Amino acid sequence: MAAGLLLKVVGFCVWALFWLGGTATVSTTALAGGDAVVVDARSAVAATDDDFVCATLDWWPPDKCDYGTCSWGRATLLNLNLSNKILLNAVKAFSPLKLRLGGSLQDMLIYDTGDSGQPCTPFVKNTSAMFGFSQGCLPLHRWDELNAFFQKSGAKIIFGLNALNGRVPMPDGSLGGPWNYTNAASFIRCTVNKGYDIHGWELGNELSGSGVGARIDADQYAADVINLKHIIDSTYQGNPSKPLVLAPGGFFDAAWFTELVSKTRAGQMDVITHHIYNLGPGVDDHLIEKILNPSYLDGEASTFSNLQGILKSAGTSTVAWVGEAGGAYNSGHHLVTDAFVFSFWYLDQLGMSSKYDTKSYCRQTLVGGNYGLLNTTTFEPNPDYYSALLWHRLMGTTVLSATFNGTNKIRTYAHCAKNSEGITLLLINLSGNNTNSIYVTSNGAQTQSARKEGRRFSHIPGLGEAAELTREEYHLTPKDGNLQSQQVLLNGKVLATDANGDIPKLEPMQVEGTKPITVGPYSIVFAHIPSFYAPACR
């Protein structure tokens, strides 16, 4: 009994050295036998939307194939089984989940509102057409079905509009001329008349910079965005709230994005959206090597930083979103972008983008291709689904600075806790060999009890109010230690839906706050530390 008490006191003393030594230069690692994450809790570095996590739904037909593999099946907007219980429950679990409807074929899609003068026919394979398919059409009865699902699931919808109508080829290879918005405006009016709630309307897909398939100059694009804003203002006149205007939904090009921002005035473009496929083509055999390489992951920080620099320099109210991110283009790579290993890339992206004031991050896809949060045929959640759901439930909107003093194989991010006291820490271990014991220390933080008592700490855990220093931990690991597994373990238990298609409960393990956070090889840890008082989180 006495020996156990002594161990607790010694453990607390080591913990206290970390807690109180936020700016000290003492070799605390040697003292504690572990490494440290330093969280600056005095002020926020950025803020996200409350519904930061977003996912996409695409338009591809079943015969969309890449590298000889057809991975889309019946998992897109025109053919998705909207009555599937798992699909419904997966979306409802977020309460709400933003869904961005769009993708490559959106700029070849017309809407069956009766004004296009063309029959409403589906996409048909055509190797001579852009992206390998003919023009397609969204029937209004399907739009009704989709909206019934959105309303039932509580999803918040961003709809990507066709931005290529009316364009003509230009001498420099781009497409020019003003956007013919007749069909789009009719579709927006129809949507409003039906009472369907749209969170935002986005213009075009991957037409910025050098474009993918086609490109449009920033000057013309700005004029088209302004026209979209006018359409929304007039159509939603008298409504208590108006949808967001988003653009351009393309790859970041500094000069092009700078011009777009400079030529849209305050309130004309609410959100500037960019896409991320920084791992290269899905056929690449070195995807896992890239994902596990800290230097490679760091490379995307410049995109977030440069975009924020443009917005700040312009003094605009426009905010940044990642409008589509699948990591590896051309539908991803089976057993990589739909397996446990991809959570390293995905959660690192969520953490990194949020540090640069990105307000929302849309994952390609909710379902469809080889990078879906859900399995394309069974809708059973892939590991990244649970990673996304834990982020959504645990990571608040206030972003804090967090640095790790050990190996670069540990990635760390910190936010104020969501709807709770304290902070939530995300730790990602890219090493398959090392287990790390990690202490958490801070600039500008106290335990809750210390704050209440007006001093640095008021009790020793285990001798009194020990529960107040208990934290909640969520450890994610791949089944059987296989990085390419499509099953994930939470605190050692496999996560899977039940017979009713219900999403499993995500229950933490309770850990005494004086102990370091143990981060095993190839694992991910969310740690909610309610006793961590951070002034930035007030």
From TrEMBL:
Signal peptide bounds: 1-25
Membrane topology: Peripheral membrane protein
Record bears the keyword Phosphoprotein: no
A Pfam family matched in the record: Glyco_hydro_79n
GO CC term, one of those recorded: extracellular region
SUPFAM superfamilies: (Trans)glycosidases
InterPro entries: GH, Glyco_hydro_79
Gene Ontology MF terms: beta-glucuronidase activity
Keyword annotations of the record: Glycoprotein, Hydrolase, Lysosome, Membrane, Secreted, Signal
Superkingdom of origin: Eukaryota
Entry's localization field: Lysosome membrane; Secreted
Predominant subcellular localization, coarse grouping: membrane
Role noted for this protein: Endoglycosidase which is a cell surface and extracellular matrix-degrading enzyme. Cleaves heparan sulfate proteoglycans (HSPGs) into heparan sulfate side chains and core proteoglycans.
Family assignment from sequence similarity: Belongs to the glycosyl hydrolase 79 family.
Name of this chain's protein: Heparanase-like protein 3
Organism: Panicum virgatum (Blackwell switchgrass)
